[in-house]
Design brief:
The chain is an alpha+beta fold. The chain has three helices and three strands. The protein has one domain: Multidrug-efflux Transporter Regulator, Chain: A, Domain 2 (Orthogonal Bundle), CATH 1.10.1660. Strands 1-3-2 form a three-stranded antiparallel sheet.
Length: 70
């Protein structure tokens, strides 16, 4: 049994998806199905996280769409 994280930092989402920070920002702005970031705090420097399970659901839908289009 492996333990999956509940939340993932912005920089780690970039690593998981193998995209730059700007590319991830673009995905967030343009893809309404992409999980919304969760900001922990009110200051500008507050960390931003994403729900890991939501990221995996989004990724699996992207894979399924790519396979269906092929």
């Amino acid at each position: 049994m492996s333990i999956q994280p509940m939340r993932v930092q912005f920089k780690n989402v970039c690593k998981i998806l193998d995209v730059s920070r700007e590319s991830l920002r673009h995905i967030i702005r343009t893809d309404l199905t992409f999980p919304r970031p969760i900001k922990m705090g009110e200051s500008k420097q507050s960390p931003v996280y994403f729900d890991y399970a939501d990221l995996m659901k989004w990724h699996n839908k992207q894979k399924a769409n790519a396979i269906a289009e092929a």
